[in-house]
Amino acid sequence: MAKPFTASALRLLNCQQCGQLSKQISPVQYCPRCQTRLHFRKPNSLQRTWAFIIAAYILYIPANLLPVMNTSSILSNEKDTILSGVFYLWTSGSWPLAILVFAASITIPGLKLLILTLLAWTASRKKQWRNLERARLFRIVELIGRWSMLDIFVTAMMVGLVRFGPIASVTAGPGAIAFALVVICTMLAALSFDPRLIWDLPSDEQDKEND
Amino acid sequence: METKTPLNYDTRALIACTDCDLLIQAPQLKQPENTNTTALCPRCNAVLLKQANHSVSRTLALAIAAFVMLLLANAFPILTLQIGSESISCSIFGAANTLYQQGMWYLSVIIIITTILTPAMQLLILIYLLLPIALGKRPQFIIVPMKIFNALHPWSMIEVFMLGILISLSKLMGMARIEPDIALWSIAILMLLLTATLSTFNPKQIWRLLSPVPQ
């Protein structure tokens, strides 16, 4: 197959904000229409993506081990992690909700991290491997990432409602912060990743010298 | 190398795919303003261009309606929980405030940003840009509001919040009497209106208002 023409191969800069194409005329250039600094690719895309991925992996451990929610009443005092919260939903009979929370809080962040790792790794090797599938994976990651915030919102509502002092009260645990940070880090990783790197050929190296 | 190609073509007739950088001739979508059309990248299927039916007036109407719902969603409690003779109502601010009092101010900041500030800013920017256009004028500032709007998009999480409310509702149903309040319905409607607003909005139309670039 003939090599497809890309904008960067023809030294054309595509504005990230407004989509205006401009010819490269100097090493530092701004969009003539919206004054955005122009780059062939997002600057330091892979370094930034890796940094957020690694931070998210590290935070993933306390996010799952530390309690997200403390429930205290006259009779008992319970500390719930994300997984035990799902387990509680399951045993109390609302298994559709258990599946939903499990998907949003455990499957999605985990899968998202693995997919981002795969994308960043294959992009750094410039492997021309299942490009269309990888492009689709990236779009899925962008789309579903926000849904992991679900548990944070559930915790917030429980904390806001169950405030009956010694009779029954719910407080947020440190796991909630770690969990929120995991979600934010994976979202930032997806935002820093430049999907055009999926399609770049090994011979395109020199195109990005001045980002 | 292609890089030595003489640059004597008109870049206005070309567009590059944002997701894979493929250079193609800008597709001409037929019947402007009357149909909902999208053009996809032939290589990676990313959306290159979209055209929504009467984008400006519809987006404006939806954005104003959504903003009213956002005000209601913040003015009233979402759920009311009753244990014995005591009852507690909780609004978005109430939830954020309780978290703040427990020393979890980072969580309350995240909640305020994702459920109040971001949607409010999105809607206000849309109203600011589209109201003058609907009246036949040109908004005074375009670049900065559009850049803020683009940056806000991933952080607006009303629909996730809605699901979170429903889950906490069903978690508490077994324990005590719990009743949905006005803001629950406002948030549900806001969620639908916001999604509709964002899908009819066509940012390319706004960028086109800026002076054409000679090149």
Percent strand of chain B equals: 5-15%
Chains forming the largest contact: A-B, 73 and 69 residues
Poorly predicted parts of chain B? 1-7
Average pLDDT over all residues of chain A: 89
Describe the model.
Chain A is mainly alpha-helical and 211 residues long. Helices cover 53% and strands 9% of the residues of chain A. Chain A contains seven helices and five strands. In chain A, the strands form two sheets. Chain A has a three-stranded antiparallel beta sheet with strand order 4-3-5. A two-stranded antiparallel sheet of chain A has the order 1-2. In chain A, a hairpin with a 6-residue loop joins strand 1 (12-14) and strand 2. Chain A starts with 11 loop residues before the first strand and ends in a 12-residue tail after the last helix. The model of chain A has no long low-confidence stretch (mean pLDDT 89). By secondary structure, chain B is α+β, with helices and mostly antiparallel strands. Helix content of chain B is 52%, strand content 13%. Chain B has seven helices and seven strands. The two termini of chain B are 23 Å apart. The relative contact order of chain B is 0.15. At the A-B interface, strand 2, helix 3, helix 4, helix 5 and strand 5 of A face strand 1, strand 5, strand 6, helix 2 and helix 3 of B.
